[in-house]
Structure formats: C-alpha cells, structure tokens
Amino acid sequence: MRIERFRWWHIAQVLPIEEDLFGVEKWSSAMFWNELAQRNFYLVALDGEQVLGYAGLSVTADESWVQNIAVRRTAQRGGVGRAMLEALLAEAARRGVKQTLLEVAVDNAPAQRLYAMYDFEPVAIRRGYYQPSNTDALVMMRNA
C-alpha cells in the first residue's frame, strides 16, 4: 500500500466506495471536485492503481478538520484508515495547527475507537447532522 495526494482522476474510483459506505448520504463528484479546488489536503491509499481509501483535511490558521476518512470494505481493519489518519495529523502538525476536529456518526463505534487511539475526545453532539438519515454526529477534538 502507498499513500499519495488525491488527484482528480481518483474521483471515479472513490464514488463507488462512497456509495457502498454511505448510501444516500454519499458525496457527489462535484463535492470532491470542490474539495480539490479549495486546495484542501486530500490523500488516497493505493494498492497498485486501485483506491483502497481516501481522506481529507481542511486547515485554517490554527485548527484543522478531518473532512472524511473512508476505506473500501475489503480493505477495512488492515491499517489503511490508521495510516491515512496519521498522514493527516502529520500534515496538520507540519502546518502548526493547534487542534484538529472531526465529526463521526454516533453509531460508528469502530471509527470512534480509532480516533480515541489518537487522543481525540468527544466535545459535542450535532443532532440530525447526517441527512437524510437524521443521524447525530459526535464532534471529537484533539490538541496538537
């Protein structure tokens, strides 16, 4: 596995992963194009030319937000998500960010456990954040 910058040509492989993992709450092609156009920091994990997963980070002056981390079902529990999270946190540190935040579905215990391993702590709940399922999001934060 190798991790590299997410480029526009990866979008075609990312969309089926989005569909599989997130269903009606999936991101569209336009949403990924917008993230890249805003120059947010996005990565893909690759096995050869196949996208195993992707992750994004939005950075402001002193904080960053993990936009998403997603791993193809057949590659889950193999360290792909952890490797991408570590790469995002390294980029945040390189940019001198003081804190990193993220939102995760309240019913996604495996992701919450991963984030807790990297010192993310729950700080808030966003009621009905994920639509159309109306699922709450847990906001987690980590200080640099």
UniProtKB/TrEMBL annotation:
Question: What reaction(s) does this enzyme catalyze?
Answer: N-terminal L-alanyl-[ribosomal protein bS18] + acetyl-CoA = N-terminal N(alpha)-acetyl-L-alanyl-[ribosomal protein bS18] + CoA + H(+)
**The UniProt record lists the keyword Zinc:** no
The record's annotation in Gene3D superfamilies points to: 3.40.630.30
Q: Which UniProt keywords apply?
A: Acyltransferase, Cytoplasm, Ribonucleoprotein, Ribosomal protein, Transferase
Coiled coil spans = none
Superkingdom assignment: Bacteria
Entry keyword Ribosomal protein: yes
Mind telling me which residue stretches traverse the membrane in this protein? none
**Catalytic EC class:** transferase
Subcellular location field: Cytoplasm
Q: Which InterPro entries match?
A: AcTrfase_RimI/Ard1 (IPR006464), Acyl_CoA_acyltransferase (IPR016181), Bact_Acetyltransf (IPR050832), GNAT_dom (IPR000182)
Q: Which PROSITE patterns match?
A: GNAT (PS51186)
What NCBIfam families does the annotation carry?
A: rimI (TIGR01575)
Task: State the protein's name.
Answer: [Ribosomal protein bS18]-alanine N-acetyltransferase
Natural source organism: Paractinoplanes rhizophilus
